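Hi R.,

Here's the input for the adenosine-5'-diphosphate complex you asked about:
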Amino acid sequence: MLHIKNLSVSAGKKSILKNFNLDINDSEIHVLMGPNGVGKSTVCKSIMHQFDYDILDGTIIYNEFDITHSKTYEIARHGIYYIAQSPVEVEGITNAELLRSAMNEQGIKMDIFEFNRKCLEVCKKLNIPKTFLHRHVNVGMSGGERKKNELLQMFLLQPSLVLLDEIDSGLDVDALKIVGENLKDYVRETHASLFVITHQQALIDLLEPDFVHILKDGRIIESGTKELAKEIEKFGFLRANNVSGSELSE
Ligand code: ADP
Ligand code: MG
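And here is the predicted structure with adenosine-5'-diphosphate in place:
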């Protein structure tokens, strides 16, 4: 499904990812952990080819398509959906408008009645007011509300790979449980895959990831099961591999 091979990326002349490798198959949940500033968000931004990140070397293949140098909208059309650490506000366009045009672009055929029914169903599932649909995208929303709003879009667009960058930030305990359970159900129902950046053990317990990876020096230095996340929570990144945030962000 997603195959990242020997990827090297820099931003603002700073080398961030170096020979980074990652393979994600259908229906798999991967968690990425690592100290602040190590390059976790850069992995998502590189996959989405954000304009200020330079891909120096390596390849990103998604379902047989080489998307390494594709435009962000082309990558999205392939079915990759990204929920940023801090989702941006889009003044002047409502969620419903954005969703209708995005669904048209994706070739998802749905009449207005079906669209309304589906929107209400997702709002209920995520415990968000249906007035969200008519609000401008993320405008005036709290951190947690933005995350839920991005999830609302995700459930309607039905991506095959979802990149979630610290989805837990801003979510209260009840919201975290709702989000975790719904994401897990989404994987079960659609066989989509998740790439989740988080340090929140409660979310990891809900998602039961197939793999947990640790990022250091621009590449994954250790992969394991959810037990690895428990070990990190207990002993920190300074354990066996002597990973330190400051040394990494130089
Ligand atoms: P993480 O998500 O692991 O905390 P990031 O991927 O956001 O880390 O950033 C990795 C490092 O690259 C940080 O030191 C950050 O300051 C730097 N960085 C990220 N984006 C840019 C940019 N556009 N210009 C310059 N430096 C950047
Ligand atoms: Mg980050």
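One thing worth noting: The chain has a mean pLDDT of 92.

Cheers,
M.
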